[in-house]
Amino acid sequence: MKATFYWRVVFGASAMLSGVASLIWHDSGMWLRSRAFGPTLAPVVAWVLAIALVTAGAAIMHPRTARFASAVLGVIYGLFTLACIPDMIAAPSTPLSYVDFFEQLSIVCGAIAIYAATEKDAARSAAVGRAARLGFGVCTASFAWAQIVYLRHTESLVPMWIEPNPMFWTILTTVAFGLAAIAILINYRARLAMRLMALMLALFGLLVWLPRIVTHPETLANWTEFSSNYLMTAASWLVSDVRAL
Fold first, then answer.
1. Is residue 59 a part of any domain in this protein?
2. CA trace torsion 100, 202, 4, 112 (10° rounding)
3. In CA terms, which of 6, 68, 162, 207 is 20 to 30 Å from 169?
4. What secondary structure letter does DSSP report for 211?
5. Does residue 3 register a pLDDT over 80?
6. How far apart are CA 177 and CA 244, in angstroms?
7. Residue 208 lies in a domain
8. Contact 102, 153 (CB under 8 A)
């Protein structure tokens, strides 16, 4: 399917952008997480992971290398997901570490969906795809929860010129995430829910993060949020294409 290929390109390009941002800015999340390996190994780990993101992001766009690249990206973002756990344990009442955990996990689900699509065994592909759907459903529920917890912050991200007002769109998207999570988890109109969510996330990237990149290209957070936004956007569509649905 052409749509699947295009979203795989978006997924790969977003991973490449994330890797390039980490190569340029050494205070990115990747470099901060790599500090756990000590002062000697930390820079090496960060460089290797950043280069791997760029390489695997490019490789996932090509049919012959997509399967291996999806496994590499799945492992990398799986490591990023696991890296959130120490903060969750150290400060269990702090929502931010949970938000980061589920954002990274949703990207892992996108990589798993690509891997499932390249699996020749139909039964195995369906099983892997089902796992991706359930995992992504839990992540979607966390997105609704995160917007409730950070309601005012989310409102501040919505451009003021969009009618009727930012709080309206904050509440509407929070409800949309909640309904999508239910649909995905019970597998009722799950494909439609994920594709509508992909559209919503794509618009969020265009209306919120792209203007911030244009006005403040020197700010690392704008680039990392933009790349993460489109990794999750592509993941939503890619998971919707798995055979288990």
1. yes
2. 10
3. 6
4. H
5. no
6. 21
7. yes
8. no
Separation of alpha carbons 112 and 130, rounded Å? 10
Structural domain total, the chain: 1
Q: Which two three-digit tokens encode residue 183?
A: 């649909």
pLDDT in the model for residue 245: 63
**Residues 159-199 pLDDT 10s:** 999 999 999 999 999 999 999 999 999 999 999 999 999 99
Length of the chain equals 245
Q: How many angstroms separate the CA atoms of 184 and 108, rounded?
A: 16
Structural domain boundaries enclosing 86 = 2-240
Q: How far is CA 219 from CA 43, 186, 224, in A?
A: 21, 40, 9
Nearest-angstrom CA–CA distance, 219 and 223: 7
d(CA 91, CA 198): 31
Read off the amino acid at residue 89: I
pLDDT tens for each residue of 149-158: 999 999 999 9
Element spanning 85, H or E = helix 85-90
Is residue 25 in some structural domain?
yes
Nearest to 190 by CA among 122, 126, 242: 242
Q: Which residue has the higher pLDDT, 146 or 28?
A: 146
Q: How many other C-beta atoms lie within 10 A of the C-beta of residue 63?
A: 10
